[in-house]
Amino acid sequence: TTKNRSAYVCNNCGAQSPKWSGRCADCGAWNSIEQVTLPPKATTRPGAGGYAGAAAGQAARADLSAIHRLAEIAPEQEVRRPSGIAELDRVLGGGLVQGSVVLIGGDPGIGKSTLLLQASAAIDANPAFAASKSSVLYVTGEESPQQVSLRAQRLGLAPGGLNLLAETCIEQILATAAAEAPRVLVIDSIQTLFTEALTSAPGSVSQVRETAAQLVRHAKLTETTVFLVGHVTKEGALAGPRVLEHMVDTVLYFEGESGSAHRLVRAVKNRFGAVNELGVFAMTDRGLRQVSNPSAIFLSRHAEPAPGSVVLVTREGTRPMLVEVQALVDQSPLANPRRLAVGLEQNRLAMLLAVLHRHGGIGMFDQDVFANVVGGVRVTETAADLAVLLAVLSSFRDRALPVDLAVFGEVGLAGEIRPVPNGPDRLREAAKHGFKQAIVPKGNVPKGGVEGLKTLPVLTLREAIDAV
Ligand code: TYD
Ligand code: MG
């Protein structure tokens, strides 16, 4: 029996349901459900499904899959090669892993194609990636080869042996990739691809899922590293995000405000490295330039101390980084004063203000509170708590904190200041950039202190307030 089966898939979130409806029950999107045809169910192998029967003639049957004892399997070290673009290698966990699939997401125009073209050129020039035919195959589904060539020229890249393929049919792409056997396959973008097996339009969840699945299979079978470019919809999600994120090994997201000259690439998932690792780039007319010392750029040093500004030592992935947290507190004309956080978690800000009231005795119920991380950086860790509260307090009192002060620490609901991971590392980063004092959780101060830095260890919010 090879009856075609169909299912209904939401184009926004990828959720599957047995029947059509006008609104996705999972994500709530309207008019996003589409019918897809599923491949016919594999006919059951004779005997394979029966539990009792399988036990009886186990040794004799050759069609059973082999079982291995975990203890007898030798662990295999993944093969990893640095591309030569250090910030990209950093977010990948130390270079490109053979046979891995990397999804690079981000808004249109943020720099995905630029980064991948630069990376392709670097890989192509790198003898470590030398292959029998070509080291990189760049599949362009959005731009013509002429446009890519123009871009390469503008970026000042040496074209070398870089191979381009302008194609969007996955069957054609895989046939070409099989013949060329490149070490690295770049797909720009996954939303332009289609498989002949499906009738839906390119970019629909069923197409994205099916073509990506075929590319993942290809990567694993041929040990090719595959980069998939994925555009983010205006709601901030990749088309079919659940589907794609689960299928690939590594997910990188481009961050950064469109007006800012910096681009951050964050690893939000990585089977081969640390998550939240951050690669920092500066945008120039000759492409993305690596920033190996991000503290230096995100820190706008004020000549004069400014109220509402606090320097936070955050840690993204494996690297400590200094960023400036700003707050503005102002008398509110509204019955419900505003709380707005940019680059920080909104709910966390509301919670911190409650802690400040309850345990610090300072109420903000008639004040608008705005908080912002300078430079378009997004801080996701709780170590920012104390810096945010001190910035709020500094603005509220209109009293500036010393310019050579750095802060980090988590604030608990009981008003306690909790230690955060890698305290000494953060303190050393602050000292390295010329900071002279630091208000930090008591548990984070190493025994001998940190050279050149006066630490002010605190256990409670009260102590922290008294310290400033
Ligand atoms: P592009 O890489 O095409 O973005 P995406 O592939 O994510 O849609 O970049 C968009 C535009 O910005 C493009 O015209 C090139 C320009 N650009 C620079 O001039 N310098 C840069 O460093 C970057 C990243 C982009
Ligand atoms: Mg592009």
Automatic annotation (TrEMBL):
One of its GO terms (molecular function) is zinc ion binding. Residues 368-468 are annotated as: Lon-protease-like. ATP binds at G106, D107, P108, G109, I110, G111, K112, S113. A motif (RadA KNRFG motif) lies at residues 269-273. Pfam families: AAA_25 (PF13481), ChlI (PF13541), Zn_ribbon_LapB (PF18073). GO terms for biological process: recombinational repair. InterPro entries: AAA+_ATPase (IPR003593), DNA_repair_RadA (IPR004504), P-loop_NTPase (IPR027417), RecA_ATP-bd (IPR020588), Ribosomal_Su5_D2-typ_SF (IPR020568), Ribsml_uS5_D2-typ_fold_subgr (IPR014721), Rubredoxin_2 (IPR041166). The keyword Calcium does not apply. SUPFAM superfamilies: P-loop containing nucleoside triphosphate hydrolases, Ribosomal protein S5 domain 2-like. Keywords: ATP-binding, DNA damage, DNA repair, DNA-binding, Hydrolase, Metal-binding, Nucleotide-binding, Stress response, Zinc, Zinc-finger. Residues 77-232 form the RecA family profile domain. One of its GO terms (cellular component) is cytosol. The middle region has homology to RecA with ATPase motifs including the RadA KNRFG motif, while the C-terminus is homologous to Lon protease. Belongs to the RecA family. RadA subfamily. DNA-dependent ATPase involved in processing of recombination intermediates, plays a role in repairing DNA breaks. Stimulates the branch migration of RecA-mediated strand transfer reactions, allowing the 3' invading strand to extend heteroduplex DNA faster. Binds ssDNA in the presence of ADP but not other nucleotides, has ATPase activity that is stimulated by ssDNA and various branched DNA structures, but inhibited by SSB. Does not have RecA's homology-searching function. This is DNA repair protein RadA. The lineage of its organism: Bacteria, Pseudomonadati, Pseudomonadota, Gammaproteobacteria, Chromatiales.
